[in-house]
């Protein structure tokens, strides 16, 4: 099993990343940190706690992280995730902070402790603005050699058919990306929108989830959440396209790299860090002969993704 830390801003697709991380047979989820992103920090923390509870995930705690990006003002993705960050179902339990939140320390200290205490190098899966990760690497650079890989959901490279200009996670805190890319972590992987927009929870997928999960209430919760996400993406992706599951794709990468196509290329945050607009710069074709610093994924085997994701949901529904 690969020890994994999940940094997230739960979020519909973050919730799926959490469930995949907790129930994939080859992942040992060490802990979860929350950050300002899809919604304010208090909401993303609460949502993480509620998802842990709803999915019966025992022995994993949430740790509060940064309440705002390093330089930019906080902004939230309410158009897509609703005001709470996780709108769309009344089946989520009220948050049991006592049991699921470790309020004794913050995310940065908790990540450092988990990484330094682990007998094996840890993978970090970062599926939100990179603020917590940048703070960790700045305050505790001794963690770097103990990080086996950092898998980031973020960015857009222009290699897919759907080409939005910017992506929420990386454009929310480009200065954090700047720090992360210069940290010395040996393996940084990027799972950009170009890849994740091929992973859509369509009607057929939702039916498969309902058919296979063992607990009708849990199946309904997942159906509600995916249905809400599909509806908020309908304008952008088309009516009936489904809900894009960006974040769990970055989770899958740490244990199923062979399900991806990828290129080792040079990547950087936009030119003027300090007043950076959040564009991603990447030398995808090696035209500029810049030194590669990142594995940028360009495709994923969606059938293998869904097998892993549905498998995790079935496991969760049995708890
Ligand atoms: C990313 O932004 C958030 O809304 C999602 O949770 C995902 O991490 C996609 O651009
Ligand atoms: Ca997210």
TL;DR?
Keywords: Glycosidase, Hydrolase. By secondary structure, the protein is α/β, with parallel strands linked by helices. The mean pLDDT is 94.
Beta-strand portion reads 15-25%
Structural class: alpha/beta
Report the bound ligands by name, code or SMILES.
beta-D-ribofuranose, calcium ion
Output the helix-strand order.
EHEHEHHHEHEHHEHEHHEHEEEEH
Anisotropy-based shape: globular
Radius of gyration: 18 Å
What is the tally of helical segments?
A: 13
Q: Which residue ranges are poorly predicted, with pLDDT under 50 across at least 5 consecutive positions?
A: none
Q: What is the percent of helical residues?
A: 25-40%
- The total strand number stands at 12
Distance between the termini: 20 Å
Largest sheet: 8 strands, mixed
Question: For the largest beta sheet, what order do the strands appear in spatially?
Answer: 3-2-1-4-5-6-12-9
Mean pLDDT: 94
């Amino acid at each position: 099993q690969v020890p994994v830390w999940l940094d997230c801003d739960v979020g519909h697709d973050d919730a799926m990343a959490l469930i995949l991380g907790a129930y994939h047979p080859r992942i040992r989820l060490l802990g979860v940190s929350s950050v300002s992103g899809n919604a304010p920090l208090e909401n993303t923390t609460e949502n993480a706690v509620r998802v842990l509870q709803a999915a019966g995930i025992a022995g994993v705690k949430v740790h509060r992280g940064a309440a705002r990006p390093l330089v930019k003002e906080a902004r939230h993705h309410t158009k897509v995730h609703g005001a709470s960050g996780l709108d769309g179902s009344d089946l989520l339990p009220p948050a049991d902070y006592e049991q699921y939140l470790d309020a004794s320390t913050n995310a940065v200290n908790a990540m450092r402790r988990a990484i330094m205490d682990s007998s094996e190098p840890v993978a970090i899966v970062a599926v939100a603005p990179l603020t917590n990760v940048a703070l960790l690497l700045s305050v505790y650079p001794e963690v770097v050699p103990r990080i086996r890989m950092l898998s980031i959901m973020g960015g857009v490279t222009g290699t897919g058919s759907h080409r939005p200009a910017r992506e929420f996670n990386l454009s929310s805190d480009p200065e954090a990306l700047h720090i992360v890319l210069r940290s010395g972590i040996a393996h940084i992987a990027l799972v950009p929108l170009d890849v994740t927009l091929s992973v859509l929870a369509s009607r057929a997928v939702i039916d498969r989830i309902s058919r296979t999960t063992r607990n009708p209430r849990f199946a309904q919760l997942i159906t509600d959440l995916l249905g809400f996400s599909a509806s908020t993406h309908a304008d952008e992706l088309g009516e009936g396209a489904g809900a894009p599951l960006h974040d769990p794709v970055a989770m899958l990468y740490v244990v199923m790299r062979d399900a991806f196509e990828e290129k080792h290329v040079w990547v950087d945050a936009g030119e003027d860090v300090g007043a950076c607009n959040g564009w991603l710069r990447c030398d995808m074709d090696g035209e500029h002969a810049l030194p590669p610093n990142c594995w940028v994924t360009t495709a994923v085997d969606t059938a293998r993704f869904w097998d892993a994701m549905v498998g995790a949901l079935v496991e969760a529904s049995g708890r």
